Amino acid sequence: MDPLRVAVVGTGNIARIHADSLRQLGDDVRLIGAVDVDADRLAAFADRYDVPARHSDLTSLLEKDRPDLVHLCTPPGSHHPLALACLTAGSNVLVEKPPTLSLAELDELVEAERKSGASVATVFQHRFGTGALRLRALLDSGVLGRPLVAVCHTTWFRNQAYFDVEWRGRWDTEGGGPTMGHGIHQMDLLCAILGDWTEVSAIARQQARRMETEDVSMAHVSFANGAVASVVNSLVSVREESYLRFDFERATVEVTHLYGYGDDDWRITPTPEHAGEVLAAWRTGPSGVRSAHRAQFAEVVRALRAGTPPPVNSAESRRTMGLVAGVYASAFTRSAVRAADLAADSPFYRKMEGNGPRW
Ligand SMILES: NC(=O)c1ccc[n+]([C@@H]2O[C@H](COP(=O)([O-])OP(=O)(O)OC[C@H]3O[C@@H](n4cnc5c(N)ncnc54)[C@H](O)[C@@H]3O)[C@@H](O)[C@H]2O)c1
Fold this sequence. Notes:
- Helix 1 packs across helix 11, helix 4 (79-89) packs parallel to helix 5 and helix 5 (103-116) runs antiparallel to helix 12 (314-333).
- The model has no long low-confidence stretch (mean pLDDT 98).
- It contains 13 helices and 14 strands.
- It folds into 2 domains: 4-125 and 295-309, NAD(P)-binding Rossmann-like Domain (Rossmann fold, 3-Layer(aba) Sandwich), CATH 3.40.50; 127-289 and 320-341, Dihydrodipicolinate Reductase, domain 2, CATH 3.30.360.10.
- It is 37% helix and 25% strand.
- By secondary structure, the protein is α/β, with parallel strands linked by helices.
- The strands form 2 sheets. Strands 13-12-11-7-10-9-8-14 form an 8-stranded mixed β-sheet. It has a 6-stranded parallel β-sheet with strand order 3-2-1-4-5-6, with helices on both faces.
- It is globular, with a radius of gyration of 20 Å.
- Nicotinamide-adenine-dinucleotide (NAD) binds next to helix 1.
- Nicotinamide-adenine-dinucleotide binds next to helix 1.
- Pfam families: GFO_IDH_MocA (PF01408), GFO_IDH_MocA_C3 (PF22725).
- Residues 134-249 form the GFO/IDH/MocA-like oxidoreductase domain.
- It comes from Plantactinospora sonchi.
- Residues 4-121 form the Gfo/Idh/MocA-like oxidoreductase N-terminal domain.
């Protein structure tokens, strides 16, 4: 079978992880093109990864090289127009998180996807480590019982200099602070396990950094299955950690990591009466794969070969983006927000900050 022809747009920091991860997939994929508006970065990247087609704009790549799949590794504000261009040209697109700046933009991509036959997917790599896959499998089998309570913490640290990069910490280019840009990873895994959320109550604060957006948000979230979760997103936490905890009727399942987990970062604590059954199921589940871009890319390639929408598909991405919008809507209206409140007439549908933040 011919290799899948992939192009990378935006050749900055995360693009190198994309290129290294694509390389690790071997002959299944070929990096045939790269695009950047910065000629020096483009040349350095293309030389390093031996990329034949080099372009200063996406339109030229789409016309001349017609890639099967485009990885968008540009700053968040450019994701929507670039993804639209890919879908219109019939190329599948895998966009870095956050997929768009707003729910309105994401819905436009869903509409373009419907018309084009090509697919749009978002990079949420923490769904794809075997720890998360094992948890999902155990939950589906019923061995854990009902989910009751969850904790979802992204307590990270970014100093003031981090926000010197011109697109960071601004509503119009990044779409938010740690809720949109960092905690979205953990919130996506939370939603992947617990499903549809129904209501959120949140606060957002500017605790320490000079920037437009929040540097801390805290929320409690209700899910359609009856579970409730506590979410913290912070960029001012000196001892950094990503922590997810799920309390089911028959066991607590936890993962503690920072930017990626392995199997050893997971811990399961069953009730004494269900220990035998729960631990046996946990030990025989999938194992051996860290949460990383490579794990997701392998699934994206598999899905495209099978003619199915690659993960994380637009509907799943939208649910996570809806929760992000819900956190901001609740924080800035100072009231509980239901998922249904974020319809097209809500100011938080068009912009994450709605009609403007209220601190
Ligand atoms: N999944 C993850 O764990 C993870 C981690 C870090 C960053 N990210 C995401 O990756 C994206 C990029 O972040 P980064 O840190 O690599 O940014 P970066 O600033 O290092 O790189 C972005 C590159 O895109 C180029 N660019 C900008 N506009 C362009 C356009 N219209 N066409 C072509 N090239 C353009 C810039 O010149 C630059 O080289 C962001 O969405 C960020 O949130 C994801």
